[in-house]
Specification:
Helix content is about 25%, strand content about 30%. It is α/β, with parallel strands linked by helices and about 375 residues long. It folds into 3 domains: about 90 residues, Ubiquitin-like (UB roll); about 100 residues, Translation factors (Elongation Factor Tu (Ef-tu), domain 3); about 130 residues, Rossmann fold (3-Layer(aba) Sandwich), CATH 3.40.50.80. β12, α5 and β13 form a beta-alpha-beta unit. Bound molecules: flavin-adenine dinucleotide (FAD) and FE2/S2 (inorganic) cluster (FES). FE2/S2 (inorganic) cluster binds next to loops.
């Protein structure tokens, strides 16, 4: 009896083993799409190995579409128009595409697999996005969970960007994390410095990239990034400006203010910075110092939950109730917002209620 059971188990195990091997062979055979061609804007043709996402296939050929979430299908930054090929729309894409985009066959390039020849249309400006190699030249602890890190470009390299734009850091494997990921970080230094960039990075508990940055990176380490990306940049107008930021959202606003100092702006500006308590404030002296630089500028830190020991005498609560006095001419006001999606949504709503036009409200949401 026992012998029969053992024999049956052995036969079953044998069949499962053979099936598993057949499956692996079938998978390799079925997924062998061979070489595929990607035609870009009818002008340029790339030959790539089929089977990978359109986003990563383009990246391998040094064509870098924005991908703020690193290809996880959650940010929508990697959209591009597919003229031919690309396969059917996936359920993961639909929530991030509007009706107009669906009609134009706009797709998320991180979700589209290159399985055959494909033709795409992308803005020519994408070709300005490059991969950079750098060395860490400075690390500053701004708070217990926010660091300012300077990346010095290799000798002879320069980066051209607009104040407010971001780059994507590419991590290296560390500890138990074996894969490389890329994540978006706004440049906090001014565009006039083009041989290095500074980023301001807040530690996200369990976060792959921020843990790598905070716990592994040290002076002298080599780091790669791509960029510059994004349409969140300072517009060259004479309109009044309202800046609103929270946490590491201070990064692009710092770049904008430093740039405005270089060009000697006369614009009327107010900057609200939201934080939880005193220990979350940083660069306060530097931001306050701009009040002496510009003819009409105010820096207003607002604490939502100050500790009793903070002895905080400044503004408290949410930033929105404080806008009233800051918006003097809503028709002639631009707003630049940066921080968590919750903060951005609430501030957008409050600004529009006070008469600021939706198309004059620019933001980068760090969600
Ligand atoms: C355009 C743009 C610019 C950005 N600029 C900056 C910047 O200048 N400085 C900066 O610090 N960050 C910035 N971010 C956020 C940054 O890209 C990463 O999302 C963030 O650092 C987390 O990356 P991670 O790999 O450590 O975490 P992940 O491994 O991606 O996430 C780990 C877990 O944390 C959650 N999570 C992810 N992000 C956050 C968050 N911000 N808060 C709370 N939970 C989170 C995820 O849902 C997940 O469960 C920016 C994002 C965008 C889209
Ligand atoms: S990279 Fe974020 S949705 Fe594609």
């Amino acid at each position: 009896m026992l012998l029969t059971i053992l024999k049956d188990v052995a036969v079953l195990a044998g069949i499962s083993g053979v099936l598993a091997i057949l499956l692996v062979i079938a998978e390799r055979w079925l997924n062998n799409y061979g070489d595929c061609k990607i035609n870009i804007n009818g002008k340029r043709e790339l030959t790539v190995k089929g089977g990978n996402s359109l986003l990563s296939s383009l990246g391998e050929k040094q064509v870098f579409l924005p991908s703020a979430c690193g290809g996880r299908g959650s940010c929508g930054a990697c959209k591009c128009q597919i003229l031919e090929g690309g396969g059917p729309l996936l359920p993961t894409e639909k929530p991030l595409l509007s009706q107009a985009e669906l009609a134009d066959n706009i797709r998320l390039s991180c979700q589209v697999k290159v399985k055959s020849d494909i033709s795409i249309q992308i803005p020519d400006s994408i070709f300005n996005i490059r991969k950079f190699s750098s060395v860490i030249s400075e690390i500053i602890d701004f708070t217990y969970d926010i660091k300012g890190i300077t990346f010095k470009l290799d000798e002879g390299e320069t980066i051209d960007f607009k104040a407010g734009q971001y780059v994507q850091l590419i991590t290296e494997p560390y500890g138990k994390v074996r894969q490389r990921v890329s994540r978006a970080y706004s440049i906090s230094s001014k565009p006039e410095i083009n041989t290095s960039i500074q980023l301001i990075i807040r530690l996200v508990p369990e976060g792959i990239c921020t843990t790598w940055v905070h716990q592994n990176l040290k002076l002298g380490d080599r780091v790669n990034f791509t960029g510059p990306y994004g349409d969140f940049f300072l517009r060259d107008t004479e309109a009044d400006i309202l800046f609103v930021a929270g946490g590491s959202g201070k990064a692009p606003i710092k770049s904008m203010l430093e740039h405005l100092q270089v060009v000697g702006t006369q614009r009327k500006m107010t900057y609200f910075f939201g934080a939880r308590s005193l220990k979350d404030l940083y660069l306060t002296k530097e931001m306050k110092a701009f009040e002496q630089v510009f003819p009409d500028f105010r820096y207003v830190p607002v604490l939502s939950n100050p500790d009793p020991d903070d002895n905080w005498q400044g503004e408290t609560g949410y930033v929105m109730p404080h806008f009233k006095n800051a918006i003097r001419d809503p028709q002639n006001t631009e707003a630049y917002l940066c921080g968590s999606p919750g903060m951005i949504n609430a501030v957008c709503k409050a600004l529009q209620e006070q008469g600021v036009a939706a198309d004059k409200i620019y933001y980068d949401s760090f969600g």
